[in-house]
Amino acid sequence: MAVVSKKIGIIGGGISGIAAAKQLRQYEPVVFEATDSIGGVWKHCSYRSTKLQTPRCDYEFSDFPWSQRDNMSFPSYQEILDYLYSYATYFDVLKFVKFNSKVVELRFLGDNNGRSGEYGSLLAGQPVWEVGVQTAQSENIEWYAFEFVVICTGKYGDIPAIPKFPQNRGPEIFQGEVLHTIDYCKLNEDESTQLLKGKKVIIFGYKKSAIDLAVECAQANQGPERQACTMVVRTSHWTIPHYSVWGLPFYMFYSTRASQFLRQRPNQGFLPNLLCHMLSPMRRAVSKIIESYLTWKLPLEKYGLKPNHPFDEDYASCQMAILPENFFPLADSGYIAFKRATSMWWFYERGVQFEDDSKLEADVVILATGFDGNQKLRAIIPDPFCSLLEFPSGMMPLYRGTINPLIPNMVFVGYIESASNLRTTEIRCKWLSQLVDEKFKLPSVENMLQQIRKEMEIMMQTTRFYKRGCISSFSINHIDEICEEMGWSP
Q1: What b/e sequence results for 63-72 when a residue is b if at least 16 CB atoms lie within 10 Å of its CB, and e otherwise?
Q2: pLDDT per position as a tens digit, 170-189
Q3: Per-domain boundaries in the chain
Q4: How far apart are CA 49 and CA 47, in angstroms?
Q5: Where is FAD annotated to bind (predicted)?
């Protein structure tokens, strides 16, 4: 079968893939989207109640503002999808997208001598990667050759992270129904209501997806035959009820230059580093102020949900979640219950059992246990590059959140998180476009690895949940350095 040769291939049609296609559109990239729609997790991993975690003005492309950007409400997932489609249509990006085209394999065409010294040009002048694609219409694999490939499949969706159970104590012995949130997202309103209504439902997890799901479960269980939805919480995280604290907008505490000056960041000089250490009591005080507000505002102690770690750590790891307005009122009315469990658990015939021998009966168990994004990459990226996707710390080594210096002619967009992923994704794609056009040169491989280590050290020092790879505490510095590298004024 003939191989189609192009300059740039983009894998994934979510926010990152569409942003990359827009910035690289002069090269007519090919975007492979495994489904029939753009939008990524906003399309395929959202509930009816899913909303953005920030006001819309903090989640927009620089050259495509929201039509109602002064509306401070959090847009729904459908509004996000409409906005993304409008953006892709306005900049005529959809013509590059091949829908229902799943990438199943990558082949490296270059040499395997390892990387040292200079990284080299992204456009090598000849194909470096072959991409095997399977379409919905055929089981045959079509092959495309590219000079470089942009991976935008993201860390979420597609492959669920399923807990491991002792032998003969897994879902197979449970007489009820077990599903992951990714399965729940595929249900329509009638199907989800039928699944939950009048049932004893257990949800494992206490992050945003689990919280939203508990609200939907409680709303489906209104009526005389109601059953409380039980959330099994292993690690509690700080949640906030809205986007202000003691009457001040939340961004003032963490997302201004003044607030981020209090926090460690890569490449800060001796004097800023000294001031940062001297002002550390102020940094801890800010975290304590927010914690005291949340403890006063929310019944965290009543339900045993007050975290043992500082609020700073959740923000620095992108773990903070904004609660639906009716979450704790539903708990107060008996529609949502909580079970703290720090130990192992497994199934028995009528529900789940914990290491302390306590049991919970259930009709339905839903696993809000996250996704295995690295498994998606390992499934398509060949050896030896597959072994280079993670450092021993568990984080992906990405220079400017984009380039793995040890993998040639391949970039990753959407794998390092921030408080506004769209904003940092767009600036990285602008940086990538300038790099492809050879408007600037990359540092040596060793210097890029050194920069990556500096950022990882900051993450590891600021939060115990660093494996998510989050730059929220130094996002402004991150964007400044990207701009400076392009020769732009921050």
Answers
A1: eeebeeeeee
A2: 999 999 999 999 999 999 88
A3: 4-158+372-486, 171-241+298-365
A4: 5
A5: 16, 33-34
Residue-wise pLDDT for 459-472, tens only, equals: 999 999 988 889 99
Does residue 16 have a known ligand-binding role? yes
* The pLDDT of residue 115: 58
Q: Which two tokens stand for residue 391?
A: 């450092």
Tokens of 66: 């929201």
Q: What's the CATH number for 171-241+298-365? A: 3.50.50.60
CATH of 4-158+372-486, one of 3.50.50.60, 3.40.47.10, 3.40.50.620, 3.40.1190.20: 3.50.50.60
Dihedral sign, Cα of residue 286, residue 289, residue 292, residue 294: negative
Known binding residue 33? Answer is: yes
pLDDT at 114 over 70: no
Buried residues in 98-130 as b, exposed as e (16+ CB within 10 A): ebebbbeebebeeeeeebeeebeebbbeebbbb
Angle at 299 between CA 294 and CA 303, to 5 degrees: 125
Could you please report the per-residue DSSP string of 175-229?
SSEEEEHHHHTTS-HHHHHHHHTTS-EEEE--SHHHHHHHHHHHHHT-STT--PE
Residue 384 phi, psi (nearest 5): -90, 0
Contact status, residue 444 vs residue 118, Cβ threshold 8 Å = yes
| Cα Rg of the chain, angstroms | 23
Of 413, 435, 433, 436, nearest to 424 by C-alpha is 413
Here the tokens at position 215 are 């609200």
**Is the pLDDT reported for residue 265 higher than 80?**
yes
Q: How many Cβ atoms sit within 10 Å of the Cβ of residue 148?
A: 22
